[in-house]
Amino acid sequence: MRELTGYKHVDGRPGIRKHVVVLSLNSFCNTATELISQAVRGTLPLVHPHGRNEIGVHRERLERSLEGVVLHPNVYAVLVVGYEPKSTKEFVETVKKITAKSVESVLVLAGGTWDAVRTGVDKALEMVLAASEVCREPIELKDLIFGVKCGGSDATSGVASNAAVGEAVDRIIEAGGTAIFSETTEILGAEHILARRAVNEEVAKKIYRAVQENERFAMAAGVDLLGVNPVPDNIRGGISTIEEKSLGAILKAGNSRIEDVLGYGERPPHSGLYFMDSPSAATEVMTGLSAAGAQMILFSTGTGNPVGNPISPVLKITSNPRTVARMKEHIDVDISDVLTGSTSLREGGDRILQAIISVANSRLTKAEIVGHMEFAPIPVGL
Amino acid sequence: MTPSSPEPKKWLWLHREDNVAVALSDFTKGAVVQIDGSEIILRDPVDYGHKFAVKDVRAGEPIIKYAETIGVAARDILAGEHVHVHNLKSLRARRQ
Questions:
Q1: Cβ-based interface (< 8 Å): residues of A facing B
Q2: How far is the C-alpha of B60 from the C-alpha of B71, rounded, in Å?
């Protein structure tokens, strides 16, 4: 295998990017965040409409997502743009307990947006300067966490691209690496198969519980997930039962043992394959996978999907030849020859691994070039 | 990458245990496919992405794809028949 390189960090896992992030803690801070980032080239602005009055699970998910950005291996330094001193100080103190990387903050309520910008640009400039001097060093596959996602699925996903991604995931796990798959609604009907692969009885129970909770949530909103799945366009495409649909979706996670069920944005405690209990929409799932520390996200698609992530490069893989032709600026790996049988699944997995190494080593993904940086720190819905 | 075989497959039989295969083109009734050395004559039209039986399956027996049970035969199914919601029943769905 070709050499892998990355940026070694003051704490823990190496990154494959070295972003300097300007992070808004609150919707009122988005303007200052954008202005700082426009003034200082080489910074990445992260904005969102939250940060005030969230409670319960929403509060937890927001904190996980924002802390996840700061702690992420692909992030070199962070300038936090907070609104008022108390919550900003709490946030910075919390992350500083976990990371030794450079984290600084400015406040909008202190002297207004422009004052926060004036102070912020000086700090951001120093961070970009420092980041520009960091060089790549050899790293290993076992240093990396991969998020695994499928979206825009069609008949080709279940038989070829998910299976080839699963091949690559198996080899990542064999090499001592880590992968996290998610989308609780997408394992519905196949949870007994995943439960058989759980490391122990307790984890098997967690898998069943995640699905039951998901169904209960849907039932409370008047939707019977097992009663309406597969949906009419699935049936038209040839999918007959919920088991068949979910079996196609879980192929992307390969065949390794499942170590544990993680909460939204929760970091895996050690290497291996994990399931993250999460709503299934692409932006929300990938924000959670990134918050869990995934340095890269493998995205299997049938009909194509443009979505990206600001922190974790998203590698788009398809086996649908029409999607390759129609969605050129969104597809990174074409394995349509696996679908037609002229290339084996194993070779398809090889091609994905080669692309993974290239992207880890600095090749840009299409989503990075096109500028897809979707970020949704509070997932709602299913 | 150079494809190792020039002739693209028109169907996929994913696992040896599977009693269904997946069409990768639109088949008309009477089309002939070769699976595991034997000839199967399609008894129904089978569209792209849809399944057909590669062996006879009795009512109540499991339908196997991905080497896993995806449901049971709702009636006897002969090799070459289209397998879909009309003759395959989920073991999990609450309404079907």
A1: 154-156, 159, 189-190, 193, 224, 226-229, 235, 237-244, 247-248, 251, 337, 339-344, 347, 351
A2: 9
What value of ipTM does the predicted structure carry?
0.92
What are the tens digits of pLDDT across the range A311-342?
Answer: 999 999 999 999 999 999 999 999 999 988 78
Residue B44 lies in a domain: yes
Angle at A280 between CA A274 and CA A284, to 5 degrees: 90
Closest CB to B70: pick one of A156, A240, A341: A240
Virtual torsion, Cα A165, A168, A173, A179, nearest 10 deg: -40
Q: With beta carbons less than 8 A apart as the criterion, state whether A105 and A92 touch.
A: yes
pTM (two decimals): 0.93
For the domain made up of A141-370, give the CATH fold.
Rossmann fold (3.40.50)
How confident is chain A (382 residues) per 10-residue block, as mean pLDDT?
Answer: 90 94 97 98 97 92 96 98 97 96 97 98 98 96 97 87 97 98 92 95 98 91 84 87 92 97 97 96 96 98 94 97 94 93 91 98 98 93 80
CATH number for the domain that contains residue B49: 2.30.130.110
Residue B94 lies in a domain: no
Per domain, the residue ranges of chain A are: 19-133, 141-370
Cβ pair A226:B1 closer than 8 A: no
Q: Provide the shortest C-alpha distance from residue A227 to chain B (in Å).
A: 5
Q: Give the range of the structural domain holding residue B85, as residue numbers without chain letter.
A: 11-89
The kind and range of the H/E element at A166 are helix A162-174
Q: Which CATH number fits domain A19-133: 3.40.50.150, 3.40.50.12090, 1.25.40.10, 3.30.365.10?
A: 3.40.50.12090
Q: Within a 10 A sphere around the Cβ of A187, how many other Cβ atoms?
A: 26
Comparison of pLDDT for A106 and B92, the residue scoring more:
A106
If phi > 0 it is left, if psi is from -120 to 50 it is alpha, else beta; for residue A209 that is: alpha
Q: Which residues of B touch A224 (CB under 8 A)?
A: 94-95
| Distance (Å, whole) CA A36 – CA A51 | 19
Q: What is the tally of structural domains in chain B?
A: 1
Return all residues near A205 (Cβ < 8 A) that are at least 6 apart: none
Distance, in angstroms, between A145 CA and closest chain B CA? Answer: 27
- Give the SS3 label for residue B52: strand
